[in-house]
Design a protein that fits this description.
The protein has about 300 residues and is an alpha/beta fold. Strands 3, 4, 5, 8 and 9 form a five-stranded antiparallel beta sheet that branches. A two-stranded parallel ribbon has the order 1-2. Helix 12 links the parallel strand 6 and strand 7. The longest helix has 26 residues.
Length: about 300
């Protein structure tokens, strides 16, 4: 074989090899990388991951689909735990996902997330969390009443406790750890409050990660700083309000207002004492990882 023919043969062989390698690399890419024009809606099969079907945010999310004319989208019910598990899996794989979400929640401390803008205000904008107590508590237990009236903190405080619990700490242990880290703030809650001398207080709460965390912090402070015995009773949102209104429980600190628990407050407000806001800056909405290239619910219209 002549030297010229040998060089031609080698060049052709190299070209074939490079072409084959390029083909294999393309096959190894994900569908998202190969087809950047695929919309978020198509990638997610037009599905938003929700939580429990009876939760107020699920009703708001369904209203959002109507208000924004997202007729091809649907909200898939699951649970709070299943939603966060799906979110974590998607983030680990850097895939798109849209979930129903709210602040405060520990996921905002663990992951880099953003809440989609809601220009129509379907999710109600910023909300607040109020403390509600039964009528007669001020006369029966003035110290406890004063404590509940002075209880106030910020979303970052609550999210810190929530994250401790999520990472595996027992609820009262997480509360104890947080209180020791924030003695100055806690002292503003207990200032001028008479000790309870072992009196019993019953608090109702719902199985939401924020209300679980806040109720356990309050229980820890009342028991370990003020000498009360606190019973936490887990119920659904309706009974949470009803039990305090009917005097079967003394207090609740997880009333999301003015939107999420609006119907319950309207039903029972004449039989409750509203001590006002204990936390401001709460929000409901649709949440996505920050790496997703959408910023508003309206961006889903074209999807």
């Amino acid at each position: 074989m002549s030297r010229k023919l040998l060089w031609v043969t080698l060049i052709l062989a190299l070209a074939v090899t490079l072409t084959a390698c390029g083909g294999n690399e393309s096959q190894g890419q994900s569908d998202d990388e190969n087809n950047e024009s695929t919309s978020v809606g198509e990638k997610l099969e037009y599905t938003i991951t929700g939580i429990d079907p009876g939760a107020g945010i699920m009703g708001q999310a369904k209203d959002a689909l109507k208000e924004y004319s997202l007729d091809n989208w649907e909200i898939q019910s699951s649970s709070g735990a299943a939603m966060t598990a799906a979110l974590e899996k998607a983030i680990d794989e850097k895939k798109p996902i849209i979930v129903t979400g709210w602040i405060p929640h520990w996921k905002f401390m663990r992951f880099d997330l953003k809440m989609l803008d809601d220009p129509k205000g379907v999710f109600g904008g910023e909300e607040q969390i109020n403390t509600l107590v039964r009528k007669g508590l001020e006369e029966d237990m003035p110290g406890a009443y004063k404590f509940f009236d002075q209880f106030n903190w910020e979303p970052k405080h609550l999210q810190d406790v929530m994250l401790k619990i999520e990472e595996g700490k027992e609820e009262q242990k997480a509360a104890e750890e947080w209180v020791k880290e924030h003695e100055e703030l806690v002292s503003t809650w207990t200032e001028g409050v008479e000790p309870g001398n072992g009196k019993e207080i019953k608090m109702t709460y719902v199985s939401w990660s924020d209300v679980i965390a806040s109720s356990n912090v309050v229980k820890y402070v009342l028991e370990n700083k003020l000498d009360y015995n606190v019973e936490l009773v887990l119920v659904e949102p309706g009974p949470m309000f009803a039990s305090v209104a009917e005097g079967d429980a003394d207090a609740m600190i997880g009333a999301w207002l003015p939107s999420t628990h609006k119907s319950y407050l309207e039903q029972y407000k004449e039989d409750l004492v509203d001590l006002g806001v204990n936390l401001t800056g709460t929000r409901n909405g649709l949440v996505v990882p920050s790496y997703m290239d959408i910023d508003s619910i309206e961006d889903l219209k074209a999807e």
